[in-house]
Amino acid sequence: MQRIPGGNLTETKCQIAHKVHPCITQTERVSPTELAKYLSGLIEHRLKISTMLWGPPGVGKSSIVAQTARKYGIGFIDVRLSQLAPTDLRGLPVPLDGVSRWYPPEFLPQEGQGIFFLDELNMAPPTMQGMAQQLILDRKVGSYELPEGWFVWAAGNRKEDRAAVFDMPAPLANRFIHLEVAPDFESFKDYGLRAGIHERILAFLAFRPVLLHLMDSRRPAWPSPRSWEMASALLKAGLNIAPVVGEAAAAELEAFGQVYEVLPELAEILEGQSSRPFPEEPSARYALTMGLTLRAEDARQGLNAFRWMVEAAPPEWVQLLVADLYRRMKPHGLGEFALLVREEPRLRAYLEAYRELVLG
Fold first, then answer.
1. Which residues pair with 2 in a beta bridge?
2. In the predicted model, is pLDDT for residue 331 greater than 80?
3. 217-229 pLDDT per residue, tens
4. CB atoms within 10 A of CB 243
5. What percent of the chain has pLDDT over 90?
6. Mean pLDDT for the chain?
7. SS3 string of the chain?
8. Cα(276)–Cα(287) distance, rounded to whole angstroms?
9. The pTM is what?
10. What is the mean pLDDT of residues 301-309?
């Protein structure tokens, strides 16, 4: 329990967690986007409650923690307990004036602010988990004490993920806020639009979201958000992506690529010169909508894509395009695009109808 400043009452970890993000309870599954917001809330409220992230391999747990540290310009130290011995964490005893003093390892922070991240925590044997318990509970180990500005977060895989994990001792588990991270295509798409994930992969996963994360313990390569990001780099280089997402997923993506042969010319649409109809095939619709989103290089091309979709496509596809365009342009400023749309009453009406979705 944590005492409320200036009061006589106390809050439980669950109540504090609810205050940071009212839509999330201590045991609720969260999407990667929700997790990023939750972790930001912990930092902004300066809540030094140890937090444990659960989820399948490749879902993005470690990446989101690292991105959170970069977002706030604070330090980030990633420690794998499974690769350490107890003395590696506690330090070595050194005699000084007749007394043994523990000299801490160099990777433990000495000052400043940051996130001390214990990744793959439950892959560490019970001895190491027990050693970490003092650091997690008391923010110190041996004679070392974690600086005030540092957060202690951890991550681990679940037993059902067929990971080589140990049971977490109940006293240690009770020290954490527990969040289970689930794969979510909208979160991956939001990240992909900003990170430059290959448009064919984003369009394909919009059409086949079940393949975003499909773990196959019998094979070393299988689709996950992490492996699709690697596949994007391979695809841009003209290399085979089967070694990272598996043969089946790679074959489906290759078959999906054939829809691009029957699409309207995207460059003509972006230049405002096309009168071609909107395709009927769902896979082609996803490919076209994502292609326009990612190939619009400026506000004027974005406007032309928006205008063409309003004329040619059903409303739900217009809605999808505009939401994705806003996501992609948001980091670079939306002012010019918004001004252009404002000049056309019909387009402005679409934005007003979908305002909550677009600006949410």
1. 11
2. no
3. 788 999 999 999 9
4. 15
5. 51
6. 84
7. CEECCCCCCEECHHHHHHHHCCCCCCCCEECHHHHHHHHHHHHHCCCCCCEEEECCCCCCHHHHHHHHHHHHCCEEEEEEHHHCCHHHHHCEEEEECCEEEEECCCCCCCCCEEEEEEECHHHCCHHHHHHHHHHHHHCEECCEECCCEEEEEEEECCHHHCCCCCCCCHHHHCCCEEEEECCCHHHHHHHHHHHCCCHHHHHHHHHCHHHCCCCCCCCCCCCCHHHHHHHHHHHHCCCCCHHHHCHHHHHHHHHHHHHHHHCCCHHHHHCCCCCCCCCCCHHHHHHHHHHHHHHCCCHHHHHHHHHHHHHHCCHHHHHHHHHHHHHHHHHHCCHHHHHHHHCCHHHHHHHHHCHHHHHC
8. 15
9. 0.80
10. 93
Is it the case that residue 15 has pLDDT exceeding 70?
no
Query: In the structure encoding, which two tokens stand for residue 163, read together?
Result: 């990971």
Phi, psi dihedrals of residue 152, rounded to the nearest 5°: -115, 110
Identify residue 333 by its one-letter amino acid code.
G
Nearest to 58 by CA among 166, 188, 147: 188
| All domains in the chain, ordered by first residue | 2-181 (3.40.50.300), 185-359 (no CATH)
Rounded CA gap, 162 and 85, in Å? 24
- By the 8 A CB rule, do 129 and 169 touch? yes
Q: Please report where in the chains the tokens 């970069």 appear, as a residue.
A: 70
Q: Which residue has the tokens 């280089």?
A: 237
